[in-house]
């Protein structure tokens, strides 16, 4: 590099005479001809002599036909896509340089006192290397990106992926900085990707991380380009290691209501039976609750459980729970990033009103075999990683299973001998870097549950999904992804009586397939665009009953299948107005078509829907459009910095939901079924306004946020009193569509580092619904707003971890919630000689408040660098106070009296010990 600078300076001083004679011409026939031979042919035909280092051009080849072509035209074409520049001194000498460019004049202001003027005769605006920095780092490796071509562009984009040299896994949270430029830098994201703007010429890049070895490289950049970085481990003994890949993200990004869960940190949170549970931890965040302990659904900001879009590697998972909600169906050993959108949802997501749970499986190692395992009171977990192609491809396989079946059979209780209670789930992910611009990721997942306790019925349900993602870098500004996914959920009840005469099997199934193209376009520092298109095909079997066994007299009955096609176009602009104001504005246009084959009832106008008011049954052929819906969904959010550590955000979004869960139970359960919008059931429509303040304290050690929101929903589904929803061919006669509204305030205080860390969350949320139909049977509570089944105004949680030493820590989890609404009997009356119970208005009372305290002791293995595996013990007690929290309240009539009973899931302290090992 010193030689290049010296050559340039000498040539400038000696180039006093301009080339005034006739430019040489050459005739060449080139076909993948080495450039060294091309230059020799030019020298043979002319008086020109070339000066260069052969190492620069030894791998270059040229193709083309030239008839009496000017020398400068030939040189421009053969060096067009290379790092080689040329300088014509006079008609007999041509000097080649690698990456740098020689100039005929010094630039204006070179000596600091000249008036700056444009030099029309100069070949380029020079980018000179700082001699002092080069002398300081003479042995540093140099990377050349682009060719110095005189482009006066002020900056270029450098991007790439940071990975571990040992495992090949992406490294998040690695700082990439430019030496001597405090204003330039970037931090790698969860996939190890980084991007920063660099001025043309020389830049000294460094990475900063406690856990990785030092990386330094000189970059000569004259165009947009890519630089992947492999980092080795830093094996120095450290006092403490803290990684925060999302530092300041909470105050910087524009979206409101976004929460992220660090999967590695939740291992210390004490939960039921010692299970590490991603979604249970999510319920400790403000605005996310469940209808009760053991409920298999999640209510986000007062929304119904079916209004949440839960994704695992871009594929929908319909029932993310085991044992009807006691455990999560997501394996924490294989999960990577978890991002929850409960305020403003990005435009690429649609089809749900309340939230998006975007869960990704982490990439497998491409370096060496590794694994993680745990064993607890009722479950075992194992995850293994295999390098398939070193540095390029890896396979991650994880599986969990319970051995509660074995426990039940071992108990000295005859009534439990034939019981079953089991679940398992398996997940596999294959990731493959095809080249520097493209990669593929493929994920498969399957889970199954079976449950029967002293019963003649076995309940079983399963989730199956698969996704394939192809990522491609189109150019320095454009990235694209093609995503194909399929999801399947099935529920089944097998009933076996003593005689076998009435044995039956009942089931329902939902299957969906989606194709999506998603693109990112970095137009400039002001505008960052995301856009794409998606299509989703639904296939639903709403329910069937079939005979079970040869002796069964049950007749086969099946509700006709439902099919629907949902398509969407979406676009988002992340608009940086100035240093303080960031606006994220997006739009999504979705359309839904209910498809045949099928039959649809037409009801008489002016009368409530019932079998008696059917005036026509329309029949549609296969793939014939039965009904269409659609509309524009707006997504806009903004962030404004009041000062660098304090921002205010606001957002608005509206959404359409074309699929519904039908249930007349208080909590979402496997016996629910699904229904697509059609001519009799309209899509749900929702809109939400959010406003929040976000503040970081003490060098980002503390994060605090206060958000308030208001949500409005139309066509929200509920049910008539005594409704029969399952196996009903005219289910629209049993449901009501009304209005819903929810509002509240959420407060979150989080401490991410230090001996004491954790978070405190509080929310005041109201969720109300109004069913005010034209007819009395379609009207509930006189058409007034009343609390929904999951209305819990006060919700407080505290999750804390205190490190006694590097190996020993205590953790606690405390939860308090207002009891959910319930309908109580308030009197009795006699009619025609029979006694009847008179019930209150719907949801007029509440069950007792819920509170629970959990404690755990966490013991890390020793921290020796060289050892076979790392171990971790978790000793926890769930529900330390022995609180008998009611799961539900129900009523029975005994001896002419109505008695209230309550059921609880865990009414006593539950101690557990879990052992984890990582190798």
Automatic annotation (TrEMBL):
Start and end residues of each TonB-dependent receptor plug domain: 252-352
Ranges in a coiled coil: none
Annotated PROSITE patterns: TONB_DEPENDENT_REC_3
Keyword Chaperone listed: no
Record localization: Cell outer membrane
Pfam families assigned: CarbopepD_reg_2, Plug
Keyword annotations from UniProtKB, A to Z: Cell outer membrane, Membrane, Receptor, Transmembrane, Transmembrane beta strand, Transport
Cited SUPFAM superfamilies: Carboxypeptidase regulatory domain-like (SSF49464), Porins (SSF56935)
Topology term for the membrane: Multi-pass membrane protein
Family recorded in the similarity comment: Belongs to the TonB-dependent receptor family.
Protein name: TonB-dependent receptor plug domain-containing protein
């Amino acid at each position: 590099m010193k030689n290049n600078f010296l050559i340039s300076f000498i040539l400038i001083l000696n180039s006093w005479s301009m080339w005034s004679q006739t430019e040489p011409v050459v005739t060449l026939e080139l076909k993948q001809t080495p450039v060294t031979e091309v230059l020799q042919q030019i020298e043979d035909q002319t008086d020109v002599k070339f000066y260069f280092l052969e190492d620069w051009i030894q791998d270059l080849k040229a193709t083309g036909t030239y008839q009496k072509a000017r020398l400068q035209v030939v040189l421009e074409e053969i060096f067009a896509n290379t790092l080689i520049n040329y300088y014509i001194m006079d008609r007999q000498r041509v000097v080649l340089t690698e990456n740098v460019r020689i100039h005929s004049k010094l630039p204006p202001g070179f000596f600091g006192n000249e008036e700056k003027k444009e030099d029309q005769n100069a070949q380029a605006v020079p980018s000179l290397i700082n001699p002092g920095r080069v002398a300081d780092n003479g042995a540093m490796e140099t990377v050349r990106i682009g060719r110095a071509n005189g482009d006066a562009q002020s900056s270029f984009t450098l991007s790439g992926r940071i990975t571990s040299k040992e495992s090949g896994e992406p490294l998040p949270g690695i700082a990439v900085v430019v030496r001597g430029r405090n204003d330039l830098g970037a931090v790698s994201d969860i996939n190890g990707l980084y991007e920063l703007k660099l001025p043309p010429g020389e830049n000294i890049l460094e990475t900063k991380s406690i856990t990785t070895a030092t990386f330094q490289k000189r970059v000569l950049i004259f165009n947009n380009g890519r630089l992947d970085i492999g980092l080795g481990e830093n094996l120095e003994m450290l006092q403490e290691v803290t990684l925060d890949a999302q530092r300041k993200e909470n105050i910087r990004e524009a979206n409101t209501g976004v929460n992220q869960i660090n999967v590695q940190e939740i291992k210390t949170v004490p939960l039921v039976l010692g299970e590490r549970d991603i979604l249970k931890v999510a319920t400790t965040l403000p605005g996310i609750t469940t209808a009760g302990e053991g409920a298999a659904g999640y209510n986000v900001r007062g929304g119904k459980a079916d209004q949440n879009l839960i994704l695992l590697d871009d594929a929908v998972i319909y029932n993310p729970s085991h044992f009807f909600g006691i455990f999560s169906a997501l394996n924490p050993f294989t999960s990577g990033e978890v991002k929850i959108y409960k305020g403003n949802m990005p435009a690429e997501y649609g089809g749900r009103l309340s939230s998006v749970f975007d869960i990704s499986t982490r990439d497998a190692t491409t370096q060496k075999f590794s694994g993680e395992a745990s064993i607890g009171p009722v479950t075992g977990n194992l995850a293994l990683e295999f390098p398939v192609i070193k540095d390029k491809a890896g396979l991650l396989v994880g599986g969990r299973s319970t051995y509660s079946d074995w426990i039940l059979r071992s108990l000295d209780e005859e009534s439990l001998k034939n019981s079953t209670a089991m679940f398992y789930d398996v997940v596999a992910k294959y990731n493959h870097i095809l080249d520097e611009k493209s990669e593929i990721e493929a994920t498969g997942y399957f889970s199954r549950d079976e449950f029967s306790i002293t019963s003649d019925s076995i309940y079983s349900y399963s989730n199956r999904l698969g996704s394939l993602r192809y990522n491609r870098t189109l150019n320095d500004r454009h990235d694209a992804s093609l995503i194909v996914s399929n999801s399947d959920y099935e529920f089944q009840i097998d009933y076996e009586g003593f005689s076998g005469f009435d044995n039956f099997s009942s089931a329902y199934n939902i299957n969906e397939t989606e194709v999506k193209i998603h693109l990112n376009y970095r137009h400039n520092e002001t505008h960052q665009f995301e856009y794409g298109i998606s299509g989703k095909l639904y296939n639903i079997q709403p329910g069937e009953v079939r005979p079970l066994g040869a002796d069964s007299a049950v007749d086969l009955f099946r509700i006709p299948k439902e099919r629907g096609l949902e398509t969407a176009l979406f676009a988002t602009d992340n608009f940086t107005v100035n240093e303080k104001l960031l606006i994220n504005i997006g739009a999504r246009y979705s359309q839904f078509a209910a498809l045949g084959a099928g039959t649809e009832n037409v009801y008489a106008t002016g009368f409530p829907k019932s079998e008696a008011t059917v005036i026509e049954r329309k029949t549609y052929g296969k793939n014939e459009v039965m009904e269409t819906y659609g509309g524009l969904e707006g997504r806009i959010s903004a962030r404004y910095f009041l000062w660098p550590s304090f921002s205010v955000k606001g957002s608005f979004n509206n959404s359409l939901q074309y699929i519904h869960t039908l249930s007349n139970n208080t909590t979402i359960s496997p016996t629910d079924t699904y229904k697509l919008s059609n001519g009799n059931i309209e899509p749900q429509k929702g809109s939400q306004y959010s406003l929040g303040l976000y503040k970081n304290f003490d060098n980002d050690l503390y994060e605090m946020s206060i958000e308030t929101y208001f949500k409005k929903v139309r066509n929200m589904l509920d049910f008539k009193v005594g409704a029969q929803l399952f196996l009903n061919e005219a289910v629209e006669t049993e449901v009501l569509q009304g209005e819903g509204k929810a509002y509240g305030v959420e407060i979150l205080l989080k401490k991410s580092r230090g001996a004491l860390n954790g978070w405190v969350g509080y929310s005041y949320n109201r969720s109300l619904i109004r069913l005010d139909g034209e007819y009395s049977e379609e009207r509930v509570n006189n058409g007034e707003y009343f609390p929904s089944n999951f209305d819990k105004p006060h919700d407080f949680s505290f999750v804390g971890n205190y490190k006694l030493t590097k190996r020993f820590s205590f953790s606690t989890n405390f939860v308090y919630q207002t009891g959910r609404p319930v309908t109580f009997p308030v009197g009795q009356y006699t009619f025609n000689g029979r006694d009847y119970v008179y019930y209150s208005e719907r949801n007029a009372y509440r069950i007792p408040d819920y509170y629970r305290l959990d404690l755990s002791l966490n013991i890390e293995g020793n921290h020796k660098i060289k050892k076979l595996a790392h171990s971790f013990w978790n000793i926890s007690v769930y529900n330390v106070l022995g609180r008998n929290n009611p799961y539900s309240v129900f009523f029975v009539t005994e001896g002419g009296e109505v008695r209230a009973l309550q059921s609880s899931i865990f009414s006593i302290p539950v101690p557990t010990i879990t052992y984890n090992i990582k190798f």
